[in-house]
Amino acid sequence: MKENKAQMRGIKYLWHNLEYILAAVFFVIMLVALFIQVFFRFVLNNPIGWTEELAVTCFVMMVYIGSIGATRNDEHMKMEMVINLFGPKGRLVMLIIGDVVFAVANLILAYGIFTVSLNLKKYGMTTAMLHIPKWIPYMVLPICFVTMDFKLLQNIGKKIKKIKELDNPESASVNKSANQEGE
């Protein structure tokens, strides 16, 4: 019984931190590729080209997959100076507006990159050194943008709930006491 709970906690941890774990994996692969490149170039005086291509691809993947986690935790870029000019409710409204603008931009980018990916697949283009079909790494980007939008919608829902709690403080205290009793 305890083993099952520990396994479930481990699975929940992995699922909850999947973006960061994947970003870390790409980071390690990038570092290994760069280390190999430096070793071959400066120690053996025989540079190899595929390591640079792999490192660049891993860097891009790391950044975009890591940005999903930043979006999930509401740590993406904001204009804090402008947002802080408002009261608590006004801040939340401005944050929601920012999230909506971010989500729309993500959808536009996802559509554009998805179209590019389809064209790369259609023409059978591959990377220069690794000969990986180019559409595969390109297709990761629209998936990341759509996943960020999903996380943004979750954040918007949380902010709307906070606004409702600010409008009706009695229901917020009732919800808190109900949550405490349920735990």
TrEMBL record:
Keyword NAD: no
Keywords noted in UniProt: Cell inner membrane, Cell membrane, Membrane, Transmembrane, Transmembrane helix, Transport
Pfam families: DctQ
Subcellular location: Cell inner membrane
GO cellular component: plasma membrane
GO BP term, example: C4-dicarboxylate transport
Domain Tripartite ATP-independent periplasmic transporters DctQ component: 30-158
GO MF assignments: transmembrane transporter activity
Transport listed as a keyword: yes
Membrane topology qualifier: Multi-pass membrane protein
Primary localisation category: membrane
Transmembrane segment boundaries: 20-42, 54-71, 92-115, 135-153
Family, as annotated: Belongs to the TRAP transporter small permease family.
Protein name, entry field: ABC transporter permease
Organism annotation: Pusillibacter faecalis
Phylogenetic lineage: Bacteria, Bacillati, Bacillota, Clostridia, Eubacteriales
